[in-house]
């Protein structure tokens, strides 16, 4: 029974990793689809998808510093994602 549960846990982990990657990449895929349907040049893709990741990074930095200033705990979605995958807490590493 334990082997079955361990196997199901591995399958569920793989499904969750794929699901989280789909959530992260859904908006850039939407921008790529719009560009493909409208036959936009490569600059459109570079500007929209690159801009999306730059804006997401800036938002993560702002949230980090605002919550640090307010002395509240904040974990970004990416950190929570990796802690789910690897089963670690950020506090344990420090």
Q: Strand fraction band?
A: under 5%
Q: What helical percentage do the residues reach?
A: over 70%
Q: What radius of gyration results from the CA coordinates?
A: 18 Å
Separation, N- and C-terminal Cα atoms = 36 Å
The largest sheet is: none
Overall mean pLDDT score?
80
Can you tell me the residue ranges where pLDDT is under 50 for at least 5 consecutive residues?
none
Computed structural class: mainly alpha
Principal-axis shape equals: flat
**Beta strands, count:** 0
The SSE string, one letter per element, is HHHH
Instruction: Note the total helix count.
Output: 4
What oligomeric state best describes the polypeptide chains here? single chain
Please name the defining characteristics of this protein.
94 residues, mainly alpha, 84% helix
Q: Can you lay out the helices and strands and say which pair or pack?
A:
Elements lengths: L1 H37 L3 H28 L7 H10 L3 H4 L1
Report on the structure:
The chain is 84% helix and 0% strand. The chain starts with a helix and ends with a helix. The chain contains four helices and no strands. The model has no long low-confidence stretch (mean pLDDT 80). The chain is flat, with a radius of gyration of 18 Å. The protein is mainly alpha-helical and 94 residues long.
Give a brief description.
The chain has helices at 2-38, 42-69, 77-86, 90-93.
């Amino acid at each position: 029974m334990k082997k079955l549960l361990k196997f199901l846990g591995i399958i569920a982990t793989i499904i969750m990793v794929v699901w989280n990657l789909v959530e992260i990449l859904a908006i850039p895929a939407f921008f790529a689809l719009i560009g493909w349907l409208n036959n936009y040049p490569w600059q459109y893709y570079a500007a929209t998808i690159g801009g999306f990741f730059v804006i997401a990074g800036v938002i993560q930095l702002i949230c980090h510093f605002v919550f640090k200033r307010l002395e509240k705990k904040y974990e970004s979605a990416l950190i929570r994602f990796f802690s789910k995958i690897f089963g670690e807490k950020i506090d344990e590493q420090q």
